[in-house]
Design goal:
The structure is a homodimer. The first copy, chain A, folds into two domains: 9-49, no CATH class; 51-187, Nucleoside Triphosphate Pyrophosphohydrolase, CATH 3.90.79.10. The first copy, chain A, contains three helices and ten strands; from the N terminus they run E-E-E-E-E-E-E-H-E-E-E-H-H. Chain A has helices at 93-105, 158-166, 173-187; strands spanning 14-23, 27-35, 41-49, 51-58, 64-72, 77-81, 84-88, 108-120, 129-139, 152-157. In chain A, helix 2 crosses helix 3 (173-187). Chain A is elongated. The two termini of chain A are 26 Å apart.
Chain lengths: 190, 190
Amino acid sequence: MADGESSGEANPWTTHDTSIAYENQWIRVEHNNVTTPGGSPGVYGVIRYANRAVGVVPIDDEGYTWLVGQYRYPIDEYSWELPEGGSPYGESLEDAARRELSEETGLTAGVFTPLFADVALSNSVNDERAYAFVATELTPGVSAPDDTEDLKVWRLPLDDAITMVLDGRITDAFSIMMLLHLAAQRENGK
Amino acid sequence: MADGESSGEANPWTTHDTSIAYENQWIRVEHNNVTTPGGSPGVYGVIRYANRAVGVVPIDDEGYTWLVGQYRYPIDEYSWELPEGGSPYGESLEDAARRELSEETGLTAGVFTPLFADVALSNSVNDERAYAFVATELTPGVSAPDDTEDLKVWRLPLDDAITMVLDGRITDAFSIMMLLHLAAQRENGK
């Protein structure tokens, strides 16, 4: 490891006071008055998420996966993604993965295998963390999306979904990470 | 492509009114009163970013890259990442990549090659978009970090950085995507 990793990793920011600027069911916006690492007075607005992001890559015996299509309000675009959803702190991550997979695709999985954990989706301003699973031993069923979701479901070869990352058709960072992690694992013979 | 892609991709949300709940130099928080896709009344808080996220993978003739270590205030953790920064809408993305690379590592690059564009880092609540470049034909120089940055710089083999993604030592989503895109391209013989 680099010399740099052995020291100097303490928090160089000083927080003088924190106030809540906005809050709803999903996010809380904190406004902090701070001193920066350079010693200047400053402000830091931080978005704190009520939920962790949990994602699932379902893979069936034929090597197919499922994408979910939905309109994403914040970016004003339609987006094809792997099944993903929010999990309150305290809930089991695997329970969350099971619920989101079932709600969005109708699938039930016999096995959930962790793919990665504790990834920071956008650490410059928000604290959202992402956890991913691969779901196998799949059984079809009936989906039951949230009221806030208007979903389409698409079964396709996992390789085609990875191609959709590489050519830019999948733009959701969390889905991109899940699919490229799997691509890398397969190249490594796992 | 799936049948689902040919229709039904219009915005299923209705926005009744929008107010600004919080604003600073980097983000604006919009509170929207909406009707959900399911037809129920609801609210949607959206974080709009003043800047696009621009990232760079510097690669030298020996196959080494550079990671930058810094304390990330929102997640209260130290994080090793590729050089990344914010670019105001209107600025040339390549100019932004050149500036961030130079500020954070001191490197000047002869060639910037687009790696991916327009990725949504966390599309459930925010509109932040990410653009990535590979920087080659590198010349060393002197770094000049922002006042808000207290950075360490680490030169290491690109393969080692990819390993740090796969074993979870790199937790920044944008860095993860850049490194796994490169891993996938190399496996494809590009």
